[in-house]
Amino acid sequence: MSESRRKLTALPEWQALVEHFREVKDLHLRNLFREDPGRAERFSIEDCGIFLDFSKNRITDRTLELLLRLAESREIGLREAIEAMLTGQPINATEGRAVLHTALRNRSATPLIVNGEDVMQSVKGGPGVLPVLEKVCRFAQQIRQLERRGWSGKPIRNIVNIGIGGSDLGPAMAVEALRPYSDRRLTFRFVSNIDGSHLAEALQGLDPAETLFIVASKTFTTLETTANAVAARQWLFSSLPNRSPQAEREALAKHFVAVSANPQRVAEFGIDPDENLFLFWDWVGGRYSVWSAIGLPLAIAVGPENFLAFLDGAWQIDEHFRRRPFRQNIPVILALLGIWYINFFGFHSYAVLPYCQLLVRFPAYLQQLDMESNGKQARLRPIQGEEFVQWSTGPVVWGEPGTNGQHAFFQLLHQGTEIIPCDFIGFAESVYPLKDHHAKLLANLVAQTEALAIGKTEAEAERELRQECERTGMPFRRDLVPHRFFPGNRPSNTLLAERLDPPTLGKLIAIYEHKVFVQGVIWDINSFDQFGVELGKQLASRLLPAIEQADGPIPSENSSTRQLISWIRRHRQPKSEGAA
Length: 580
Ligand code: F6P
Description:
This protein is α/β, with parallel strands linked by helices. 46% of the residues lie in helices and 11% in strands.
């Protein structure tokens, strides 16, 4: 990779796309399909048990060729960037770190040498990937065999994960997604929000003597997590029949474990880092950490074998990503299509629609993965004076499972003035075959992709309306035709797999991780830092005392901020006094 890079928009590969865009921007998918019987087959990839049909995108063969040229551009250096990530070079340049979540699922038994150390075995003299994984699996097994007991001797049956962002979304999403594989004797709850109602509701009905808290925080300094962990500790202690420092220490050791990269803070909280800490490392980004010990709740829920299968699925995609030519590379193709829409068509919103209720948290998970990674504008390798991008970067990511979304926001997808590219995700088989439910679910998935792409012309809408009028005796109204018109030409990808099982979930997540990475490389941003979350945190800690106090100065120059805090003070005061 060269030290600095020309503007993306100045690259000849980009310019070729700009020109090409002018020629093809108005082509309609209806015609593209009609004129080309081989389109679907040509614009599909099947590998690692994942089938991607990307034919319902507004592309021609030439578009794909030009997008692939962009991906191959020497100046962008995507191939080198992929290799640099997978081999542990410090590609997170703003934080001076490697990015090695792929090491966490390296199932190849090959060492991964970083700074002269095989990180699979040890990191800075401490345990490395494999020993921690072994510890995770051992611990998960003990819980599943009801061998871990609480202070009263009762077995642990409730797992409460306290963490936020990447220390919550990954395990919460995955435990839900793989619920059919989970041990039903165990209860899993996830607490992330500093809003006290989250913890309070999560603890409802739980017996402290049977409850294990997993305090998950890479830094172990995150406000929400430390506050919730302290409150949970208090909840545990107040349930003890004899409260002595000794009894509290013993209870803490039996009911609290930590997952963190900060052993010192863990020890300060009172958790023994030697016994009850599951370590991970600074080169695992929070939103990429579900493969690390952050996945502990998942390992407990589905068992070590399934957890390893989950890692294995992701590893298969890592291999696919590394070795497949870009034309057959699922993450690369998805990334390029995203760029085509964001940077050329100006479609800045993007929906992920799993036709699978178990993936209900998947869109939220992808939101962090994509928006925290690529919601950036500072360039990574600028020429001096060009520190900021002059092109769009990460889109707004959102979604809901189908078919629910169909009855909520699909109206806008079909007829709204915004065009929102979508990813549809579906599975040939259901884990719960219930009459014909699954066939109906799949029929809806496929139908939606066709309806979005092909639409319904005004002539078709009019014909249909006339037929309806004849059938029902209703008078024909021409003015209704535009309301029944579907413009179509709304792009989507469809990702299919046989079933949602542990390896498949691992594959899906890894596909999106790599897609986000490829886009970051092309946009010349660092997908692995998150400075954008800091300012709000800083201001919140400055404003906290002003909210806690009934009066006194409010440390803000901003009149709206002062007004809001004054209002809150006026309306909080009576309650605080009452509570005291
Ligand atoms: O505030 C954002 C963030 O740093 C995320 O990137 C991260 O996943 C989350 O907070 C939680 O951080 P930690 O695991 O250190 O508590």
